[in-house]
Give the backbone structure.
Amino acid sequence: MEIKKAEFITSMASYGAFSGRGLKQIAVVGKSNVGKSSLINRICNRQKLARTSATPGKTRLINVFLLNGSFHLIDLPGYGYAKVDKQEKARWGQMMTDYFEQAGELCHVLTLVDIRHEPTQDDIQMNQYLRQMGIPFTVVATKADKISRGARQKNLAPICRALLVQPWEVICFSSEDGTGKEQLLDVMEKALAEEEA
Ligand SMILES: Nc1nc2c(ncn2[C@@H]2O[C@H](COP(=O)(O)OP(=O)(O)OP(=O)(O)O)[C@@H](O)[C@H]2O)c(=O)[nH]1
Ligand SMILES: [Mg+2]
């Protein structure tokens, strides 16, 4: 699959109606600053489609993008951002559960973790939640450009242990140099096709 066209559709504080809703969705989740918005820009070949920032907590809303006019890619707000207060955390939790419970169109989730770090409790919880809900997901290890090729496989081990996946199921990805882009697009294409069967 190649992304030939990508459009921003809307930002929502809570999941609800939006123009074109009903198409299949792929959502991107992960810790704040892990590289969700950057990944979206890279796979869409666009610099500023999704807003990115060096300061965590940039994406606070549910952002919807229409790709190739045929499916929606959902940029979800990141978790584990230390500077938010209890109220903000509760709001985030509610936004996410509402989304996962109501998005019947959701067919796959990309769960992002930084390849340099062990998954956090939040990552593990997110992972367990998706399993419980029976939502298929793929673990994407981001910022692969930050470590040497040789170190990648080694770094995947603790990630796999924590998230109960096999190393070959994880995609090493870099928004910086495009590592893993083709593999990711293949996974997305398959996920979109599978649901039809
Ligand atoms: N070197 C490198 N930097 C990256 C990569 N992906 C993201 N970054 C940087 O990491 C920072 C955060 O990226 P974002 O894409 O905004 O992260 P996010 O997950 O959308 O963050 P929130 O919206 O706050 O949840 C930015 O400074 C990016 O430039 C990558 O693959 N390699
Ligand atoms: Mg973001």
The radius of gyration is 16 Å.
